[in-house]
Q: What sequence folds into this?
């Protein structure tokens, strides 16, 4: 029998893998992929709570729709910024791009 | 019988998700890690189906597998050739990362184990699409409209940022 805790544990593991990716990746696109993993972990949480806590209202599913929308908007803008940075610096390694630091 | 089948499907999907997610963050070639990201998205869609969220599973496949992956492929193709040295990414600070993430995971799982959720015994709604549509246009109509403004802003912003001037 799969309980709520199983889904929450899966989502926690996925979230931690995403955080590990953000810590260790140096490529801007790799960091974006890790962020997408974390969005997916949050969505699993939302939908699991929606099924087990409020099965008749589906509040969690509605919020998961919003999360997916925001994730799409975020990916669009972030990738546009990455392409712009690459065009100016020929580099997408986030360690090498320190023009905002002084 | 049905429960054991469900458990088996859950464990298979969870194993695929965790393995491919780890490959996404560790592989050297960014294009390969993108392919494993697609596998992760598909398996998460399977988890949604297990949770009786068929509409969201369809949305997941359409938006994540369809749109975001294509965006990422475009970004990879436009920033460098696939086998150029720029894409041979090396992970740094691996040991501190593993330590911090391990601590976070242990704390989260401990908290999860010690919490009792008020699980509802009601059966899940059978027609989730109808309910989601209704609540999007009644209870959550304001966030719905705001999110459409966010989307159009992101669209215009992306065009303006990436425009060659």
A:
């Amino acid at each position: 029998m799969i309980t709520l805790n199983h889904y929450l544990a899966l989502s926690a593991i996925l979230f931690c893998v995403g955080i590990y990716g953000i810590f260790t990746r140096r490529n801007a696109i790799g960091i974006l992929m890790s962020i997408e993993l974390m969005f997916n972990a949050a969505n699993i949480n939302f939908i699991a709570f929606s099924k087990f806590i409020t099965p008749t209202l589906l509040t969690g599913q509605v919020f998961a729709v919003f999360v997916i929308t925001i994730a799409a908007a975020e990916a669009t803008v972030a990738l546009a910024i990455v392409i712009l940075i690459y065009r100016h610096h020929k580099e997408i390694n986030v360690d090498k791009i320190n023009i905002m630091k002084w | 019988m049905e429960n054991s089948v469900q458990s088996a499907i859950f464990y298979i999907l969870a194993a695929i998700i965790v393995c491919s997610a780890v490959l996404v963050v560790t592989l050297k070639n960014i294009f390969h890690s993108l392919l494993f990201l697609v596998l992760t998205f598909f398996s998460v869609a399977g988890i949604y189906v297990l949770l009786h969220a068929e509409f969201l599973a369809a949305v997941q496949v359409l938006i994540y597998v369809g749109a975001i992956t294509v965006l990422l492929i475009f970004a990879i193709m436009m920033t460098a050739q696939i086998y150029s040295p720029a894409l041979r990414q090396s992970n740094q600070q691996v040991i501190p990362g593993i330590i911090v993430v391990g601590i976070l995971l242990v704390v989260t799982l401990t908290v999860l184990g010690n919490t009792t959720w008020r699980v509802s015994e009601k059966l899940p709604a059978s027609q989730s699409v109808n309910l989601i549509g209704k609540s999007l246009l009644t209870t959550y109509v304001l966030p719905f409209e705001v999110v459409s403004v966010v989307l159009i802003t992101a669209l215009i912003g992306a065009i303006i940022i990436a425009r060659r001037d």
Summary: The helical segments of chain B are 2-26, 30-50, 54-79, 94-114, 128-137, 141-162. The CA atoms of residues 134 and 140 of chain B lie 9 Å apart. Chain B touches chain A through 86 residues (CB under 8 Å).
